Amino acid sequence: MSDDDLMRAFEAATLPAAEWSHRAHVRVAVTYLRRHDVGEALNRMRIGIKKLNAQHYVPETPLSGYNETTTCAFVHLIAVTLQAYRQTHPTPDADAFCDTHPQLMTRHVLRLFYSPQRRMDPRAKAEFIEPDLTPLPKLPVGAAVGRDAI
User: Count of domains in the chain?
Assistant: First the structure.
């Protein structure tokens, strides 16, 4: 499925649950970050994930459903990676980005930054909570984001 096809299905909440994998999450985030600044990309991710979860009847429980901390942290890591490698390792599409950056292809990468207790804190589902093991990497000050930069 092309990035554009994935985005259409994601935004329309017609993407089948079986295709809403971690890789699909990353591909959607990459595509949004290439088209929008980080804040807008994150907002679109929030809206789309919640809409898709509702369409698939994903229950909101302490262990399932939308998690603001997970979404924010992943979008941040993807944005930093896009920015850091845009000159040396550009990728033609989000699928190639995933192949080029296998470190982001596991949901467990957040274990480097968050203890299980911190990520599973009930507040983490509703609001972004800073990591407790090590800080997330920073985007360079004044770093451009969006289609022209990433």
Answer: 1
pLDDT band at 141 (very low <50, low <70, confident <90, very high): low
Is residue 64 within 8 Å of 56, Cβ to Cβ? no
What angle separates helix 22-35 from helix 38-55, to the nearest 10 degrees?
140
- Is 54 inside a domain boundary? yes
Residue 97 located in a structural domain? yes
Residue 135 counted as domain residue = no
Start-to-end CA span in the chain (Å): 21
pLDDT at res. 140: 63
Q: Roughly what angle, to the nearest 10 degrees, separates helices 3-12 and 38-55?
A: 60
Q: What is the pLDDT of residue 89?
A: 81
Average pLDDT over residues 38-65: 92
